[in-house]
Amino acid sequence: MIRRPGRDVTLIGYGGTVATALTAAGLLAGDGIDAEVVDLRILRPLDDTTIMASVARTHRVVVVDEGWRTGSLAAEVSARIVEQAFYELDAPIARVCSAEVPMPYAAQLERAALPQPEGVRAAVRELVTTDG
What we know:
Pfam families: Transketolase_C. Keywords: Oxidoreductase, Thiamine pyrophosphate. By secondary structure, the protein is of the alpha/beta class. It has helices at 16-30, 48-58, 73-85, 107-113, 117-129, and strands spanning 2-4, 9-13, 35-39, 61-68, 94-98. Helix content is 45%, strand content 20%.
């Protein structure tokens, strides 16, 4: 489901990462970058139709995932985009995932390990300046 329409980049998230993506989209709007936010809502089956339609509109993607980068849902979503919409991409797919460490209990360390809006913003800014 599209939670925020946009034209410059697609931010894909689920669960708690949707709020992170929406916050990042607000920060990016201040930078003049119009980010579309896709909320996966259901992980099985993935909503490939919504994902690919968004990729076709924006031509850039950042997948935000609270899981580790290795073997993550972000990796699966990225693979599907490459399989189904590779020629729509103007830049490599970016993934903003949790640090590959055991999840800490202390709140400040947990925040440091989880994806944050500023990290998403930095990934998007790199994609926008890396036009193929």
